[in-house]
């Protein structure tokens, strides 16, 4: 603490010897200032004359004020605070008036002198019970993190409400029509309506699963049921299921050069979670790309055509497996390739919830792997999943 800071601390009400009074000696005042600077939150002390007597460095940062702009000035000038209705908080609350039993208030969201949102807690200090307020101590926190969390919650609610409403409306409409007018529909019409109901029900199930997975990923509570997995068999069955619901040839599976020559090692992974990962990636390619989605399995992945080397494990881990998903769409701009894995991020088409790729990244990393987005030779999007292979030491051959 420098000379100027010590001078600021000296400018306080000198009432030593009375309970609750500020320290009187220079050493005590300097100690108070030093302790205030150690606090993680902002601290402001206002005297009984309504003049700001002390503000630690964190308070000055949060308030966006210099010591000269706030210290030794009345709160109405140097520390203006307004509530959400635009009222002067000091005049509305009046810590020095009202009931003498008041001891302060809990955290409130107020607008500071710089126009930024603050979380403010107050403590009223009296020398005697029922006596006048001699000091008001304010604890300050930047409200940005809190407001960001509230905005994220609002985004979750909005996304969930929007995504649930459309399929539920469809299910309710078709089931109502079938129940009331069953005899009027042909078998083909009934089949189409039931297929639509099934599709919307599956969409709802996927959304709920993704939301639950996000909650588990964010709280590090995701559990994996690990076991030996033949990834080629998993993806073969996955591609066949896609073929049943779309035109033939829309999804193709192939092996890379090393995979054809040497075969693929087994993975120690959660089969259901890997199904979910590749379902999301293939669906993403079909939804946002065009033409054929190609899934390539390769042993010990290498850098891609642009020299991309992320996720490479080197010669000490030769048994890694990479899965590359290529589409024939417009691709992903380089500046967006990291953002696509963010929660609720989606492209200009706004055609998805923005949850699928976030879940993909979390599930792949939970397996000790990595995933990234890139471009391919046709100009489309490429997603590469890299998974460590091999069985644990405790599992014998």
TrEMBL record:
Sequence segments annotated as region (Disordered): 1-22
Record-linked SUPFAM superfamilies: ATPase domain of HSP90 chaperone/DNA topoisomerase II/histidine kinase, Homodimeric domain of signal transducing histidine kinase, PYP-like sensor domain (PAS domain)
Superkingdom in the source lineage: Bacteria
Domain Histidine kinase: 159-391
EC number per UniProt: 2.7.13.3
GO molecular function, one term: phosphorelay sensor kinase activity
InterPro entries, per the entry: HATPase_C_sf, HATPase_dom, His_kinase_dom, HisK_dim/P_dom, HisK_dim/P_sf, PAS-like_dom_sf, Sensor_HK_Regulatory, Sig_transdc_His_kin-like_C
Uppermost EC category: transferase
Subcellular location: Cell membrane
Name of the protein in its database record: histidine kinase
Organism, scientific name: Terracoccus luteus
């Amino acid at each position: 603490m420098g000379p100027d800071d010590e001078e600021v601390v000296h400018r306080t009400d000198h009432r030593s010897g009375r309970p609750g009074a500020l320290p009187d000696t220079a050493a005590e005042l300097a100690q108070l200032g030093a302790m205030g600077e150690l606090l993680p939150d902002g601290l402001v002390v206002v005297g009984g004359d309504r003049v700001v007597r002390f503000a630690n460095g964190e308070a000055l940062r949060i308030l966006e004020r210099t010591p000269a702009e706030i210290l030794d000035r009345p709160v109405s000038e140097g520390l203006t605070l307004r509530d959400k209705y635009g009222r002067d908080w000091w005049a509305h609350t009046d810590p020095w008036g009202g009931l003498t039993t008041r001891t302060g208030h809990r955290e409130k969201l107020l607008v500071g002198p710089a126009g930024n949102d603050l979380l403010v807690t107050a403590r009223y200090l009296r020398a005697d019970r029922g006596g006048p307020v001699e000091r008001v101590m304010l604890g300050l926190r930047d409200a940005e993190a809190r407001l960001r969390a509230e905005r994220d919650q609002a985004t979750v609610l909005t996304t969930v409400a929007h995504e649930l409403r459309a399929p539920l409306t469809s299910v309710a409409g078709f089931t109502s029509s079938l129940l009331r007018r069953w005899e009027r529909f042909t078998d083909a019409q009934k089949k189409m309506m039931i297929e639509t109901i099934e599709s919307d029900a599956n969409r709802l199930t996927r959304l709920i699963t993704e939301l639950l997975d996000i909650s588990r990923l964010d709280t590090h509570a995701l559990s994996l049921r690990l076991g030996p997995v033949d990834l080629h068999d998993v993806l073969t069955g996955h591609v066949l299921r896609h073929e049943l619901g779309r035109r033939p040839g829309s999804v193709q599976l192939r092996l890379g050069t090393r995979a054809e020559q040497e075969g693929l090692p087994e993975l120690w992974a959660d089969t259901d979670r890997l199904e979910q990962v590749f379902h999301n990636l293939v669906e993403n390619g079909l939804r946002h790309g065009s033409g054929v989605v190609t899934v390539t399995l390769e042993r010990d992945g290498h850098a891609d055509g642009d020299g991309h080397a992320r996720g490479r494990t080197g010669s000490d881990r030769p048994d890694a497996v990479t899965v590359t998903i290529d589409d024939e769409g417009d691709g992903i701009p380089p500046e967006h390739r990291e953002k696509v894995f963010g929660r609720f991020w989606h492209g200009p088409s706004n055609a998805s919830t923005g949850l699928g790729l976030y879940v993909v990244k979390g599930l792949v990393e939970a397996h000790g792997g990595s995933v990234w987005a890139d471009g391919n030779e046709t100009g489309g999007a490429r997603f590469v999943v890299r998974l460590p292979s091999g069985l644990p030491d405790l599992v014998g051959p």
